[in-house]
Automatic annotation (TrEMBL), chain A:
Localization, UniProt: Nucleus
Region of interest (Disordered), ranges: 1-35, 194-300
One cellular component term from this protein's GO annotations in UniProt: nucleus
Amino acid composition bias (Basic and acidic residues), ranges on this chain: 1-17
UniProt KW Transcription keyword: yes
PROSITE patterns tied to this protein: BHLH
Entry keyword annotation includes Transcription: yes
GO molecular function, one term: DNA binding
Record key words, sorted: DNA-binding, Nucleus, Transcription, Transcription regulation
Protein name: Helix-loop-helix DNA-binding domain superfamily
Biased composition (Low complexity): 273-293
Ranges of compositional bias, category Polar residues: 198-221, 243-254
From TrEMBL, chain B:
Keywords: DNA-binding, Nucleus, Transcription, Transcription regulation
IBH1-like N-terminal domain sequence ranges: 5-66
Membrane-spanning ranges: none
Domain of life where this protein originates: Eukaryota
Protein's recorded name: Helix-loop-helix DNA-binding domain superfamily
Broad class of where this protein is predominantly found: nucleus
A UniProt-annotated Pfam family: IBH1_N
Record's subcellular location: Nucleus
Organism expressing this protein natively: Arabidopsis thaliana x Arabidopsis arenosa
């Protein structure tokens, strides 16, 4: 696709990508699992780009020194829907916005667009350091990255930028990141970037499969000494012995974080149940030296504050909490059908609520239906079990078209299922039903009419508009009516 | 994670067990009572799949216990029933609305910038939705933090999907069977009619 382009323009890409990842409704709004291809091709569709551009264009492009505050505000202004998402995105974006200083402002229109259009003009003005570009590209790949090369590199600002670029997003790129030695000094950027590196390392973790609470093992750069003392009750901190070079340290740590997804599994304590207590500091779990492999299983999750971030226990715990939440939302997005394109917490929560309510209503409806269909309630289900019809069911599908008031769409079952169930059920249900078919049906019909109204009231009891029972009865239960009233 | 077939089967078995309890008293019941019995036994079956590990399952069992204690006790035979029913759920989180509203007003007065207001608005939206989710998920009021709530929601959704799948499959099977028998009987009638009709021709 645009991979070659990506290699070259990976630096610039990160900005729009981060932006995209946050604001692109068509893409996955989860920061940590944004596939690299999407980074290139996705274009923000409807996230008030002009609004964001304005805030960014006015503030970020020209005022590098106050990026952090400004970027934060600008970001928030532009992205109302993911306010709580801020934790992972905005900081990286803050950093990222340092980068634009290197590039002459393109004007608002160019800022937000898809990465490909964004890149070429910026590329021209990008520091003509091919080594930088290459390194930036390579560095941008977290998962495969070999940070050892970077360890001893003095992390200049351009390097920081590259780190940031990568850190801002969900880099699973193809480039190998070995070194990043950008030669553009930019003081603010370096500070920001360190943070971003850690951030990126933290974000990279969710990319690693199988590590649940990856984000909790972020390691901060040691440049500012031993940051990250504060933890919530569930977090322990790993003390990093002063590593000479903060950048080296952070890159090294990033590498470590990359390399130890399995170790993280050990250390991580999935104590989701315990409440978040930001006020507590627990230094009991400190580990000296490298945190490579031997976290004692004392039930703590180590979190390290990032460089440049407040080491307040509150903010640390807050960050952990936010990441946990975003992880859960990711799972929920997989579970709730049709939510892949939804971005933002509020909309996502709305969808989840609707889905749960619809499932509950379905249960009510189906139980009512069962009650009428089978007055004896002798559901002889051994046949079902024997014929492993339920295996066919495992994929959650249905043959009967569901009433339109249900929001979910279900694919029809294969026909084979019906034959199987018929054969299995036929032997058992036929006998009690056959002698009284005519009477049964009539009775069932009458029962349906009366009970449909109740069902509808139940269904709409949650506060929805109560439809006209007659209309609803005829319109909303076509399947039942078809079966019941010949 | 989608509901697996083993989950389906487990649910079905437990549900059957619950329905058996109602079988003796079936003739006197109306449709509503039958429906209630079906639904309650299905709910308890669904909750018991989790064996008390999740908050929503305990809350759900407690809720059904208030409606039909006997059923719950029968279905969850053994110590587990006692433990689940008597288990103390965490206290409901009560927010004094007046105080909350007042503090929010104060906060609003302080932050005037547009971006901050937008962020605050987003936060409010999210909070409202979270509260809505708490109302929907059983035991949601009792969950202290959002992370737990989301986790419980996840589990609850999977269980609900299991329940819906199994119930729907049974309904479909039962309906198909009825239709089949109806058709057969209708065909039989038709054939008989033809035979009668054709008799004078034969002789």
């Amino acid at each position: 696709m645009d991979l070659s382009e990506k290699d070259e323009f990976s630096a610039e890409k990160r900005n729009p990508d981060n932006y995209d990842s946050v604001n692109n409704p068509s893409g996955d709004w989860r920061v940590d699992s944004y596939p690299s291809e999407n980074l290139i091709s996705a274009g923000p569709a409807s996230c008030s780009p002009s609004q964001m551009m304005d805030s960014f264009g006015q503030t970020l492009w020209y005022d590098p020194t106050s990026v952090q505050a400004v970027g934060y505000a600008g970001f928030n202004g532009g992205n109302a829907s993911s306010s709580s998402f801020r934790g992972s995105i905005d900081r990286s974006l803050e950093m990222g916005w340092n980068l634009p200083n290197l590039l002459p402002p393109k004007g608002n229109g160019l800022f937000l667009p898809n990465a490909s259009s964004f890149l070429p003009p910026s590329m021209a003005q990008f520091p003509a350091d091919s080594g930088f570009i290459e390194r930036a590209a390579r560095f941008s790949l977290f998962s495969g990255g070999n940070f050892s090369d970077m360890v001893n590199q003095p992390l200049g600002n351009s390097e920081a930028i590259g780190l940031f670029l990568q850190g801002g997003g969900t880099m699973q790129g193809q480039c190998q990141s070995n070194e990043l030695n950008v030669g553009e000094p930019h003081n603010d950027v370096s500070v920001a970037v360190k943070e971003s590196t850690v951030r990126s390392s933290e974000q990279a973790k969710p990319n690693v499969p199988g590590s649940g609470n990856v984000s909790e093992d972020t390691q901060s750069s040691g440049g500012n000494g031993q940051k990250g003392r504060e933890t919530s009750s569930n977090t322990k901190k790993r003390k990093r012995n002063g590593q000479k070079n903060s950048e080296a340290a952070q890159s090294h740590r990033s590498q470590q974080s990359e390399e130890e997804p399995d170790n993280n599994g050990d250390e991580k304590r999935n104590d989701e149940q315990s409440p978040n207590s930001p006020g507590k500091k627990s230094n009991s779990g400190k580990q000296q030296g490298k945190q490579s492999s031997d976290p004692p299983k004392d039930g703590y999750i180590h979190v390290r504050a990032r460089r440049g971030q407040a080491t307040n226990s509150h903010s640390l715990a807050e960050r952990v909490r936010r990441e946990k939440i975003s992880e859960r939302m990711k799972f929920l997005q997989d579970l709730v059908p049709g939510c892949n394109k939804v971005t933002g917490k509020a909309v996502m929560l709305d969808e989840i609520i609707n889905y749960v309510q619809s499932l509950q209503r379905q249960v009510e409806f189906l139980s009512m239906k069962l009650a009428t269909v089978n007055p004896q309630m002798d559901f002889n289900l051994e046949g079902l079990l024997a014929k492993d019809a339920l295996q066919l069911r495992a994929g959650s599908s249905s043959t009967t078209p569901f009433p339109p008031n249900m929001s979910m769409a279900y694919p029809p079952l294969p026909h084979g299922f019906m034959q199987q169930t018929l054969s299995s059920i036929g032997r058992t249900i036929t006998s009690p039903l056959s002698p009284m078919n005519g009477g049964f049906k009539r009775q069932e019909t009458n029962g349906w009419e009366g009970d449909l109204q109740n069902v509808i009231h139940i269904n709409y009891g949650a506060g929805d508009v109560t439809p006209d029972p007659q209309a609803a009865a005829t319109a909303s239960l076509p399947a039942a009516n078809m079966k019941v009233e010949p | 994670m989608q509901p697996t077939s083993s989950m389906n089967e487990e649910f079905l078995k437990k549900w059957q067990m619950g329905l058996q309890i109602f079988r003796p008293s079936i003739d006197n019941t109306s449709v509503h009572e039958r429906k209630k019995a079906i639904k309650l036994s299905a709910d308890v079956a669904m909750a018991s799949l989790r064996k008390g590990t999740t908050c929503w399952s305990r809350a759900l069992i407690e809720k059904t216990a208030t409606e039909d204690n006997f059923l719950v006790r029968q279905m969850l035979s053994g110590i587990k029933a006692e433990a689940l029913i008597n288990k103390k759920l965490p206290k409901k989180i009560v927010c004094h609305r007046k105080i909350v509203r007042r503090s929010k007003k104060i906060l609003r007065r302080k932050s005037k910038s547009a971006s901050e207001e937008a962020a605050a608005k987003a936060k409010r939206l999210v909070k409202r939705r979270t509260q809505g989710l708490r109302n929907v998920v059983p035991g949601g009021e009792l969950m202290s933090n959002d992370v737990l709530l989301l986790q419980e929601t996840l589990d609850y959704i999977v269980s609900l999907q299991t329940q819906v799948n199994v119930m729907r499959s049974i309904v479909d099977a039962a309906e198909a069977e009825i239709e089949r028998t109806v058709c057969c009987s209708e065909n039989a009638i038709v054939i008989r009619g033809w035979r009668d009709y054709s008799k004078p021709f034969c002789t």
